[in-house]
Design brief:
Elements: E1 6-10, E2 16-17, E3 33-37, E4 71-72, H1 77-83, E5 87-88, E6 92-97, H2 103-116, E7 121-125, H3 130-139, E8 148-151, H4 155-162, E9 170-174, H5 191-208, E10 211-216, H6 229-233, E11 236-241, E12 248-256, E13 264-270, E14 273-276, H7 280-284, E15 295-302, E16 305-317, E17 325-328, H8 332-345, E18 353-359, H9 371-383, E19 391-393, E20 396-397, E21 403-404, H10 409-418, E22 423-427, E23 441-445, H11 448-457, H12 472-478
Parallel strand pairs: 6-10, 6-11, 7-8, 7-9, 9-10, 15-19, 17-18, 19-22, 22-23
Antiparallel strand pairs: 1-2, 1-3, 4-5, 11-12, 12-13, 13-14, 15-16, 16-18, 20-21
Helix pairs in contact: 9-11
Region (Disordered): 457-488
Binding site for ATP: 97-104
Keywords: ATP-binding, DNA damage, DNA repair, DNA-binding, Hydrolase, Metal-binding, Nucleotide-binding, Stress response, Zinc, Zinc-finger
């Protein structure tokens, strides 16, 4: 009989130690080690292990016909866009997101649509009772969908039940942290249980051909909780993002073996569930404040979809020794770089000002093409000069102050022209990639200095709380010496 082997496993990264310690040396987290029983095949003596010889298998060449994996449409165009065209048979997807963001609502709608289409869809909840899932379905108007429900946490019971009858086309497990298996002696939610439960469900999916969606908890940093090995085991990892105060939700593919990893799906949270947004640009710009200084429209690309979003900047004099730098929806490192380039190469003094930058609508921008739009919004707010309401901005700023070209210029311009924009500020070297069919006036800039000079020439002095115009001190800090305007 094998001797019980106890070890201390980190619940954040899965690293194992022989004794308890306060800090995990692998991930650096504190108080994440818990005692678990790791008795199993790895502790079995060599003398009683299987002595069978390995079987031979056929090696194939790279050349040959490869059949595209059959897909099953979910009935939600935005979800199919992120997955690459639908669910692949035998695939396993991991969906993560903040609590209350709408993961269960999204999956309830997806399973209901597939069940209405005649496919067998199963929804297994480990956190809610069947009555609670039914209440959500009634609120969404999906109570008549023939979805099979269950409230179960034992992986062996789930696999045994789903193996009978017709093979389900879609199985939702909500969530993987509540599942447990008899093969390991650990509490549900621990690293060992999560890994073993996910492995058993993945094995069932590959054997039966059913598509399985695993719901995963996230940490305070927004990362999917549990060992990272689970993310390597599944075929796709989807992240459901959004701000609690905003009605927009973004479904983003972090990993996808059967499709692109840079596509996004946009949803709007309503009283009847999640509504698909086919034209996110029009929705993000619906409440735009025209003629206000510090706002610029950025023409971005998310996957193959062009998205127009408004960047809002506020530059105000600070009373603190160290000015604040706050950004929402963009990389803070990119903001620091743009501020440094503006001060080093364009003479824009921002060391005595607080800087706030926000991406309207709750969208998170990841591409560096937003540098030019962010710089235009910052300078516009500093010198109190509204930008043209019919202009879009895109371009990457280098450390030397030059504006570098970005990809898919033609797609950005076409989307802007479709929404009624008449001009575009873009890198000078990108004029040859416009395609000539956008019908927009193009203002190409080779360096950031020319754009700052153009915006500063339209600036007007701000007024203080007493209604008087701010004096030369603000004007001196607001614009470089070669861009100053005469007052009066």
């Amino acid at each position: 009989m094998a001797k019980s082997a106890l070890s201390f496993v980190c619940q954040n990264c899965g690293a194992a130690y022989n004794r308890w310690q306060g800090k995990c040396e692998s991930c650096g987290e504190w108080n994440t080690l818990s005692e678990e029983d790791t008795t199993g095949a790895t502790t079995m003596p060599v003398s009683i292990r299987s002595k069978r010889k390995g079987r031979k298998f056929v090696l194939e060449s790279l050349t040959g016909k490869s059949h595209e994996a059959p897909r099953l449409a979910s009935g939600m165009a935005e979800l199919d866009r992120v997955t690459g065209g639908g669910f692949v048979r035998g695939s396993v997807l991991l969906v993560g997101g903040d609590p209350g963001i709408g993961k269960s609502t999204l999956l309830t709608q997806a399973t209901s649509l597939m069940a209405r289409a005649g496919h067998r869809a199963v929804y297994i909840s480990g956190e809610e009772a069947v009555a609670q899932v039914r209440l959500r379905a009634e609120r969404l108007g999906l109570a008549d969908a023939p979805v099979q429900l269950a409230a179960e946490t034992s992986v062996e019971d789930i696999v045994s039940t789903l193996s009978e009858g017709a093979v389900p086309r879609l199985i939702v497990i909500d969530s993987i942290q509540t599942m447990w298996t008899d093969t390991v002696e650990s509490a549900p939610g621990t690293v060992t249980q999560v890994r073993a439960s996910a492995q058993a469900l993945i094995r069932f999916a590959k054997k039966s051909g059913a598509a399985i969606i695993l719901v995963g908890h996230v940490t305070k940093d927004g990362q999917i909780a549990g060992p990272r090995v689970v993310e390597h085991m599944v075929d796709a990892v989807l992240s459901f993002e959004g701000e609690g105060s905003q009605q927009f939700r973004i479904l983003r593919a972090v990993k996808n073996r059967f499709g692109p990893t840079d596509e996004i799906g946009v949803f709007e949270m309503t009283g009847l569930g999640l509504r698909e947004v086919s034209n996110p640009s029009e929705l993000f710009l619906s409440e735009r404040d025209l003629g206000s200084p510090g706002t610029a429209v950025f023409a971005g690309i998310e996957g193959t979809r062009p998205v127009l979003v408004e960047l809002q900047a506020l530059v105000a004099p600070t009373s603190l020794g160290t000015p604040r730098r706050a950004v929402v929806g963009w990389d803070p490192s990119r903001l620091s770089m743009v501020l440094a380039v503006l001060e080093a190469h364009c003479g824009v003094k921002l060391s005595g000002h607080d800087v706030y930058l926000n991406v309207a609508g709750g969208l998170r921008i990841q591409e560096p093409a937003a540098d030019l739009a962010a710089a235009a919004a910052l300078v516009s707010s500093l010198v109190n000069a509204p930008l043209p309401t019919d202009a879009v901005y895109f371009g990457e700023i280098s450390l030397s102050g030059a504006v570098r070209p970005v990809a898919q210029t033609s797609a950005r311009l076409k989307e802007a022209a479709k929404l009624g924009f008449g001009r575009a500020v873009l890198p000078e070297s990108a004029r040859g990639e416009t395609g000539g069919d956008a019908g927009m006036a193009l203002n190409s800039v080779g360096g950031l200095t020319s754009l700052v000079a153009d915006i500063a020439a339209r600036g007007t002095p701000k007024r203080n709380q007493d209604g008087n115009r701010e004096g030369a001190s603000v004007e001196k800090n607001a614009t470089p010496a070669r861009f100053r305007r005469e007052n009066g």
